[in-house]
Write a structure and sequence with these properties.
Layout lengths: L1 E18 L5 E11 L5 H14 L3 E15 L1
Antiparallel strand pairs: 1-2, 1-3
Length: about 70
C-alpha cells in the first residue's frame, strides 16, 4: 500500500513587479519557508493575501507548495 505524508510546506506570493523595456509584464515571487504542513489551505491563503496586501505591487497569486514523502508499506 502506498502512503503519502506531508513533510514540508512553503507559501509563495507571486506578484506583478512592473514591465520590462519591451512592455512585457515582469513577475516576482516571494517564498516563506516552514509553513506547518497541518495548516489548512484557507489559513495559508489568508496569510498570503494579508502579506500580499503589504507589497507595493499588485498581488497576483497565492501558491502553496507541498513536499510529500511517499512510501510503500
Amino acid at each position: 500500500m502506498i502512503n503519502s505524508t506531508s513533510v514540508k510546506s512553503t507559501l509563495a506570493i507571486k506578484y506583478l513587479a512592473g514591465q520590462d523595456e519591451n512592455g512585457k509584464d515582469v513577475f516576482k515571487t516571494q517564498r516563506l519557508q516552514k509553513v506547518k504542513p497541518a495548516a489548512t489551505d484557507a489559513d495559508v491563503f489568508a496569510v498570503g493575501a494579508a502579506l500580499g496586501s503589504l507589497l507595493e505591487h499588485s498581488n497576483v497569486e497565492v501558491i502553496r507548495e507541498n513536499d510529500n514523502l511517499i512510501v510503500n508499506e
